[in-house]
Each structure stands twice: as C-alpha cells, then as structure tokens.
Amino acid sequence: MPMYQVKPIVDRHIAIDLPTCMYSYQIHAQHGDSCTAEHALQNGEVEPSVKALEARQDEIMRKLYELKATVDGLAKTVTTPDADLDLTVGSSLSSQSFSSAALKSPTDLDAVLGKDLGALRDIVVNANPAHPPLSLLVLHGLLCQHYRVLSSVHVHSSVASVPPQLMSCLGPRHPDSYARHMFQLGFTLIWKNVPKVQMKFSIQNMCPIEGEANIARFLYKLLVPYPSDPAVATLVDSWVDTAFFQLAEGSTKERSAVLRALNSALGRSPWVAGSEYSLADMACYCCVMRSGSASAAPANVQRWIKSCENLGHFKPAEMLQ
C-alpha cells in the first residue's frame, strides 16, 4: 500500500483556500488508494490501515477548519495599521449556556447595532498591560451573559511580556472557537504599548474610540439602554467622567474630594446615580479599586462596595487586584 505524508506549511501571510485543500485531499484519497479500497470491499471489511487513513484525514480537516477560522478571525484586525500581533493566547466563551432564555437573540443585537449581514461583529481593544482596563473586563463578562461571545487575547510586538493573569483575563479557550458562525460578538483584547485604551468596532465603518470612559459607554449600551430621563443620563455621564479622570488619574487631593462626594451621594440613594444600578456604579467601583482607596473609603462608600461585590459582576476586576 502506498504511503502518503501530508506536510502542512503554514505562513502567516498566505491565505488558505480550504475548499481547494479539501478537494485535492479527496481526489488523492479516491485515486491514490483505490487498490486498497477494492481489496477492503472484496474481503467485506475495512482494513486497519484504511481506518487509520480516514482518521488521519478527519484530524487534518479539523485542523484546517480551525486554522481557517483563526485566519478569518484576524482578518479584520490585520487590516488595521496598528494590529501587529505576535502571540495568540487563545479564545474563550463564557460558561453560560446557549439556551435562548439566558441569551439575547440576534434580532435584539440588530436592534441595538443596526442590521448587519455578517455573522459576527468584532470588537477589538488595544490596552496597555501597565494599566489594565478593569471596567472593560467587567463589561466583557456581562456581554458573555447576554450574547454568544468569541473572546481572544493577543500580545503586540511593542510589549515585552505580560503577566499570566492578564493573558487569561477573558477565560479559557472555548473548544468551538474555530466555528465563528456560532457566535454573535467577537471580543479581541490586544495588550499593546498605547497611551490610552482604544477600541475599534466595525473597523470599516467607524473611527477608533479612545479612552476607557468612552469605550465603557459604548459597550454598556449593548447591555442596557441609557436612562431616558436627560437629567439622570447627564448625572451618569458626569460620574463616569469623574471616576476615570479624577478618581483613577487625579492627585491625592482630587481622589479625596471625589470620595467625599461619592459618600454624600450614597447617603441619599443606594446607588451612585439614584435608585438603580448604572454605568456610574461600575465606573466608580473599578476606579476606586484601581486607585487603592477602598480600604480608607468613608462608611457609605464601604457599604456600597459590598453591595457592588454582591452582584457578582466584578470578579474579573477583583482577580487583577
């Protein structure tokens, strides 16, 4: 029986034509091993060598599908001028089930983002590992509870090394990550030496969004509509900006002033912007944690921190503290 050895040669700059690969492999199997197939039919059974060849073919096809899916997944990213990826860590999916009761339907996503002919919308975030965007990691976890999210982590060549906890911050690799059609959203996090966190969504139709506050607003709207009351919406926006620009990046004096104002607001209502949890709570919580002010925070803030943690949304942020 003639033996055939398949030596796949993969180059990051070569596009893979999967149908051609499948066709050529099938022709090879049909003509190259015809004598073996006839011998197997004459004896009424399949020889072990034929079974091994079939198993080998199945494994090769599985790897080709996975490789093609990886190339497709990075296609939108590598067309951008700042997406020089050097290390791929893996893909993940929230452990939430695919049941319709736990997830929003694609029509709901269309209602928020508009009709899109593609099977998957890609969110690409560039972030500096020296300043992990805690709020975006929290939002990623919430998105995974509402949508089928294909998540992946990469490292840019501008970064020498990344701590292990940042490499796995989006969870473990999902076994079906090669099947992009199964997912609604793609969430790609690239650890890169950038001055501000950046996000690209539908990169062919919109410019990048810069700043953690702005990105958090965009992603939060995929989960919950902004308050319809203009006064409440303005209050939420004000607290989001205060959290990111004064609490997280401000001086010691500025942080103290924000904590006093936060304590006063929480004395009047259970949540930062009123009676309901909002993006203001998420932003303030993440920035309090980032600034290291939690232990010395006033009483109302301490109570509010426990209320936030009881929601279970902030596990990704807590893991990086």
Largest sheet: 6 strands, mixed
Number of helices, where a helix is a run of at least 4 consecutive DSSP H or I residues: 12
Instruction: Give the strand order, joined by hyphens, for the main sheet.
Output: 1-3-4-2-5-6
Which stretches are poorly predicted, pLDDT < 50 over at least 5 residues? 1-29, 31-37, 76-107
What is the chain-wise order of helices and strands? HHHEHEHEHEEEHHHHHH
Query: How far is the first residue's CA from the last residue's CA?
Result: 61 Å
Report helical residue fraction: 40-55%
State the CATH topology of the domain at 109-223. Answer: Glutathione S-transferase Yfyf (Class Pi), Chain A, domain 2
Structural class: alpha/beta
Mean pLDDT: 75
Strand content: 5-15%
- The CATH architecture category of the domain at 109-223 equals Up-down Bundle
Any idea what the shape is? elongated
- If you compute it from the alpha carbons, what radius of gyration comes out, rounded to the nearest whole angstrom? 25 Å
Which CATH class of the domain at 109-223 applies here? Mainly Alpha
Number of DSSP-assigned strands: 6
Pfam families: AIMP2_LysRS_bd, Thioredoxin_16
Keywords: Cytoplasm, Nucleus, Protein biosynthesis
InterPro entries: AIMP2, AIMP2_LysRS-bd, AIMP2_thioredoxin, Glutathione-S-Trfase_C_sf
GO cellular component, one term: nucleus
Describe the model.
- The longest helix has 31 residues, at 48-78.
- The chain is built from twelve helices and six strands.
- Helix 1 packs antiparallel against helix 3 and helix 8 packs parallel to helix 10 (279-291).
- Among the domains are: 109-223, Glutathione S-transferase Yfyf (Class Pi), Chain A, domain 2; 230-319, Glutathione S-transferase Yfyf (Class Pi), Chain A, domain 2 (Up-down Bundle), CATH 1.20.1050.
- The chain is an alpha/beta fold and 321 residues long.
- The chain has a six-stranded mixed β-sheet, sandwiched between helices.
- It starts with 17 loop residues before the first helix and ends with a helix.
